[in-house]
Design goal:
271 residues, mainly alpha, 72% helix, 0% strand
């Protein structure tokens, strides 16, 4: 990839990582359009780390509270919302890891299959459409507060299954986990918060797994790292702000209409 392709794909990665339209699906589409035959592993690692920093930036107070309550637990022995959130993340990450590691090769083979990408994008549109008519969030509610996490049941953390299945190109991680959370009876605000907290180990883990495949650290690799990280981080901020806006409004199904245009178009293109 040249520098301009890296910048463009970094923007696509950051925006679509959080907007419920599938980052992997859109990267496949745009790599095909740009004629990128083999993307950079360094770029993938940097883009993953950039999107992790995006979540930490916008949910900094939440992450800090959770980590502080976990670190100080031995001294106060109180079961706080931060402790509960950490345990929920662990429970939710187990199915994500099992699915991701066991089905990784099968799903990665689909990254060169435009027909599969088009079908999965269309399915994501259906998943989002099913979230319609759910109660919107009052603009006075703090979407970063951990208090409502205490009401979650541990079995509801199994939305990690939806996150694991989102390894398929065209299935949105944010869209499927938020939709799964709403289907399991979690309120919209807590579902969004947990979805993004659950993404931290998943995205970071994916980046670190790819890191071992980088065999050299020449200037081209370092350039891809820098460009991928910065563009994914900045565009990720816009994407995360955008999804939070639509989650508050209770209007995720708006993205369905977009996906029902793009998905069939990709299917037609592949045929």
């Amino acid at each position: 990839m040249d520098i301009f392709q890296s910048i463009f794909l970094g923007i696509v990665q950051g925006l679509t990582e959080f907007l419920p339209i599938s980052s992997s699906g859109h990267l496949v589409i745009f790599q095909e359009l740009l004629g990128v035959e083999q993307h950079s592993i360094a770029f993938d690692v940097a883009a993953h780390l950039g999107t992790v920093l995006t979540v930490i930036t916008l949910y900094f107070a939440t992450v800090r509270q959770m980590l502080w309550e976990v670190i100080t637990y031995p001294s106060h022995r109180r079961f706080t919302p931060g402790i509960k959130l950490m345990l929920l993340i662990v429970v939710g990450s187990v199915p994500t890891a099992i699915i991701g590691l066991s089905l990784k090769d099968m799903f990665e083979s689909l990254f060169s299959n435009l027909l599969a990408v088009g079908i999965f994008l269309t399915i994501t549109g259906l998943i989002l459409f099913l979230t319609r008519n759910k109660a919107r969030i009052s603009r006075h509610i703090d979407v970063h507060s951990l208090e409502d996490v205490k009401a979650m049941h541990y079995w509801q953390a199994l939305i990690g299954v939806a996150q694991g299945m989102a390894i398929a190109p065209g299935i949105s991680r944010s869209g499927s986990t938020i939709a799964a959370g709403l289907a399991l009876g979690i309120d919209r605000k807590t579902t969004a918060l947990f979805s993004f907290m659950l993404s931290l180990p998943a995205i970071m883990g994916a980046g670190l797994l790819q890191l071992r495949h980088i065999t050299s650290w020449d200037h081209q690799v370092l350039l891809s790292l820098g460009v991928g990280f910065l563009t994914a981080y900045l565009s990720g901020l816009m994407g995360l702000w955008g999804i939070l806006y639509f989650v508050k409004k209770g209007r995720l199904e708006y993205f369905s209409y977009y996906l029902w245009v793009v998905g069939p178009a990709v299917i037609f293109w592949s045929l």
